[in-house]
Amino acid sequence: MFYRENGQFKTSYRKDQQIFTITQDRWAILALVAFAFVGVPFLVDEYMFRAILIPFLILSLAALGVNILVGYCGQISLGSGAFMAVGAYMAYNTYIRIEGMPLILALLSGGFFATLVGIFFGVPSLRVKGLYLAVATLAAQFFCDWTFLRVGWFTNHNASGSVSVANLNVLGVGINTPLEKYLFCLVFLTVFGLLAKNLVRSAIGREWMAIRDMDVAAAVIGIRPVYAKLSAFAVSSFIVGVAGGLWGFVHLGSWEPAAFSIDRSFQLLFMVIIGGMGSIMGSFFGAAFIVILPIFLNQFLPFAGSLLGVAISTAAVSHAEFMIFGALIVWFLIVEPHGLAKLWSIAKQKLRLWPFPH
Amino acid sequence: MAFFLEALLGGLMAGMLYSLVALGFVLIYKASGVFNFAQGAMVLFAALAMARFSEWIPAWLGLDDKFLGNLIAFVLSAGVMFVLAWLIERLVLRHLVNQEGVTLLMATLGITYFLDGLGQTIFGSDIYKIDVGMPKDPVFLFEGLFSGGVLVNLEDVYAACIAALLVVVLSLFFQKTSTGRALRAVADDHQAAQSIGIPLNRIWVIVWFVAGITALVAGIIWGSKMGVQFSLTTVALRALPVIILGGLTSVPGAIIGGLIIGVGEKLSEVYLGPMVGGGIEIWFAYVLALVFLLFRPQGLFGEKIIDRV
Asked: Do A139 and B286 touch (CB under 8 A)?
């Protein structure tokens, strides 16, 4: 009833090329962003920030990056965790090694180095496709795991092998309380989300999609596969690298290579697939689902057990978590292979007609 | 020289075991186009079943004979793997026909999580022993040729023999039986196989069961070497470079790829490792496979990939 596009005419090119061509969409998104900046800080407590919102923001940023590579350009990558690690460790190194390095620049430089590594490990994609490529990207994962564990320079020769940062600030404003961290991540996510959204509907985004749909055909109509594939790797690993920096600096504070292990890569891929491949919105849905599900199970299972009068041990809970998580993933892939974003667009379709049947 | 031979032999033995795990991947990929990430979880699951059954069954039945106990445990574990294969086909694969490769890959990752949880819920999550009576003594070979001879672990030799035997049995099964012929037909062309009346669903159950058996054997061998524990799942990750090196669709490729990776890993660890700080075997295999792929994108023996518009 409220969601109608009748009467909204696109009378200029500017209007035709808006991100959200439907007025209601535009206002809804604006309201959502405004609510995230202004409303949320008053509503949620510290635990909520630390356990759910901050990981959600950072991981959706990472999922956004992975989605550009996997969802838009069709290059399956299992090495995203490695690019996050590169981002985190190189941001750390520029941050501590250069006197007076601003935090944001350090994070961006982490992204820059992740880009370089991403392009390097993206080179095989020019020869290798599909599942072969997926396994090949694992090389990046294991190589980076090993490098950050064994090469002392990256951890500033710290004996324990873990690195930590403290007293973060941007232009004199501290990033220490959960609220400040939340807002900091939110700014990053908003900026990168907007950039990514615009990128995928630009010429280069269309090249990526052409490569994804059929790379030989794309090459025939004059799209350079080298350029398109490597640029997808570059953009994706830049965003993933920045997310890695945020994960290390803002969320963890101190970390070791295990924080960016292969499980992280799988997790990011899950987010993209459950959220919806080739959809910016889907990255957010996927991240929310994957972040919240384990926390929910962790709270819910002992509660369910106590209802049934069975005390469930923590080990059993963690095993049951594994099982339910795995089963849900499979179930999800079966009922909605195109991800949550597809459900979202179906819902929007229905909303256009509601409350009328036709 | 003796040292080099020792490293080489050690590499070949390890390679044989990688081939075994890789074989499971290749079988499933050929028959159903699924890149089965759950192979590692299946190895752990099968090994846990074997370890616990061989412990429980003699206790229930009051058996003293270790061989008989192990045999019953093996048969029961194989039964468990069959049920598993049937369930996977029934509950997962059947509903995901014609989906993209990456979706299927994710589904097997889901199965991985599920199996990890299930195995530890049913069988417990401690470290268990599998004792199938493999001798553990080291022996010296070629003492006439080199001073001191070449040190070989007898257990590794047995393991390699079992692996080789399994490969022979599998290739006989594939070449000589009618079921094997049906499996090869499905691997060649799904639609053509279906049109001449080969039931795809049953073939999938069989092939997952065969992969389960290879997982069981691999699990027993690895388990008796280093104990049945969660880290067995990483064996699958070690076997991945093997299949891309050998080619996703080739059984001989899995075996030869496994040997190459095993030897490469061992020699690199022995000769290159000390220079860069050690522990390089985990990524060396991947880099080796990757460099190889740059020259032959379909792997050593894989089918040539032809793209048509």
From this structure: yes
In this predicted structure, the answer to whether residue B152 has a pLDDT above a threshold of 80 is no
Characterize the bridge pairing of strands B150-153 and A173-174: unpaired
Domains of chain A: 52-353 (1.10.3470)
Query: What whole-number distance in Å separates Cα of residue B48 and Cα of residue B25?
Result: 20
| Cα dist from B261 to A136, B17, B36, B178, B241, whole Å | 15, 11, 20, 33, 8
CB contact, 8 Å: B113 with chain A?
yes
Are A337 and B99 a contacting pair at CB < 8 A?
Answer: yes
Q: For residue B128, give the 3-state DSSP assignment.
A: strand
Quick check: ipTM above 0.95? no
Average pLDDT over residues B145-173: 75
Is residue B308, in this structure, part of any structural domain at all? no
Alpha carbon B135 to chain centroid, angstroms: 22
Single pTM value for the model: 0.86
Nearest to B113 among A142, A220, A329 (CB): A329
Give the least confident one: A64-68, A116-120, A240-244, A342-346. A342-346
Q: Which of B226, B244, B262 is nearest to B302 (CA)?
A: B244
Q: What is the rounded CA–CA span in Å between residue A277 and residue B31?
A: 26
In chain B, residues with a C-beta closer than 8 Å to the C-beta of A139 are: 283, 286-287, 289-290
The closest alpha carbon to A265, from A56, A76, A93, belongs to A76
CB-based contact (8 Å) between B304 and chain A?
no
Cα–Cα distances in angstroms (integers) from residue A272 to residues A59, A122, B103, B104, B158, in the given order: 11, 19, 11, 14, 45
Give a yes or no: residue B302 inside a domain: no
Q: Which of residues 215-274 of B touch A (CB under 8 A)?
A: 237, 240-241, 243-244, 248
Size of interface A-B (CB pairs under 8 A): 146
- In this structure, are residues A200 and A71 in contact, taking their beta carbons and an 8 Å threshold? no
A224, A352, A355, B273 from A6: Cα distances, Å: 40, 10, 16, 69
- Rounded CA gap, A255 and A276, in Å? 30
B309 lies in a domain?
Answer: no
Tokens of B72: 């019953």
Peptide linkage before A41 cis (omega within 30 of 0): no
Of A105, A145, A121, the C-alpha closest to A237 is: A121
Q: What is the distance between the alpha carbons of residues B255 and B243, in angstroms, rounded to a whole number?
A: 9
Query: What is the total count of domains within chain B?
Result: 1
pLDDT band at A115 (very low <50, low <70, confident <90, very high): very high
Cα distance between residue A142 and residue A260, in whole Å = 11
Cβ atoms within 10 Å, residue A79: 29
Q: Specify if B129 maps to a domain.
A: yes
Pick from B1, B2, B8, B23: nearest CA to B235: B23
Q: Are A79 and B286 in contact (CB under 8 A)?
A: no
